Amino acid sequence: MAEDGLAVSNDLPVKRPREDEENGVSANTVAMEMEGNTDKNSNNNDYKSSVIPGWFSEISPMWPGEAHSLKMEKILFQGKSDYQNVMVFQSSTYGKVLVLDGVIQLTERDECAYQEMITHLPLCSIPNPKKVLVIGGGDGGVLREVARHSSVEQIDICEIDKMVVDVSKEFFPDIAVGYEDARVTLHVGDGVAFLKDVPAETYDAIIVDSSDPIGNIAVAYCIFILGPREFYFSCKSVLIAQVLHKSFLRSPFLSP
Fold first, then answer.
1. For residues 83 and 160, what is the distance between their CA atoms, to the nearest angstrom?
2. 98 alpha carbon, distance to own chain's centre
3. Catalytic residue (one of 139, 156, 209, 212)
4. Separation of alpha carbons 76 and 231, rounded Å
5. Which reaction does it catalyse (predicted)?
6. What is the pTM of this model?
7. What is the pLDDT along the chain (256 residues), one digit of tens a residue?
8. CA 157 to CA 140: how far, in whole Å?
């Protein structure tokens, strides 16, 4: 970790603070394009997130014609895992923000709405759920919400990126508090491979908390969620009869 709480990876296109930079935010435009995309004709070339004079802006083909911008106070962490670029920054209005490959994953101000909806809707539809599997969700927010259900006896989480887990525990302790529950077991690895080793009818519910299908994660997402039907068959085989499978869907308003 660098001084003043700023960690910088040399592999990332974000510059070290100079004398004319305030709080780790450059006065120059710093663009973070999705790494590994060499196809000039790809739609992913439309995607770019920028740090421009004190602001973080997320621009995505998922919502053409608009961008989501947050004023930045300080970059708290930057790193590159085996899978993606990871950044945490302190915003002026939304608290700390977790960004993966240039895509905002959560903010302290409004993360509860997502975590609660993806967790409590399925679990409240099941009489006395006892065993729950979370695939993805490395920030720990879904774990926190699953743990509120007293009937649950076992909570397994399979997250492929250990850096996301570690960063969340360090910078988002109120969200990652879910890892402290004694019922939680963390499995670091690929969710598809994990499911293949799970005995039939193990879980009452599976919650898939994955990233938006953009950039590097898009290929994995398409294979993992939208691709081979084997994934859904795997989910079905390890679920007990009357259960639910909850996963990410795009906005019906922005992506009809």
1. 8
2. 8
3. 209
4. 36
5. S-adenosyl 3-(methylsulfanyl)propylamine + putrescine = S-methyl-5'-thioadenosine + spermidine + H(+)
6. 0.71
7. 444 444 434 344 343 343 344 444 543 334 444 444 444 444 444 445 665 678 998 887 777 788 889 999 999 999 999 999 999 999 999 999 999 988 899 999 999 888 888 899 888 888 889 999 999 999 999 999 999 999 999 999 999 999 999 999 999 999 999 999 999 999 999 888 888 888 888 888 888 887 655 554 443 433 334 344 555 555 555 666 554 444 455 555 555 5
8. 9
Token pair in block for residue 76: 């708290």
Q: Which amino acid is at 194?
A: F
d(CA 145, CA 174): 12
Q: How far is CA 166 from CA 18, 43, 77, 91, 159, in A?
A: 28, 32, 12, 20, 11
Q: Is 11 annotated as catalytic?
A: no
Q: Is the dihedral of CA 77, 79, 81, 86 positive or negative?
A: positive
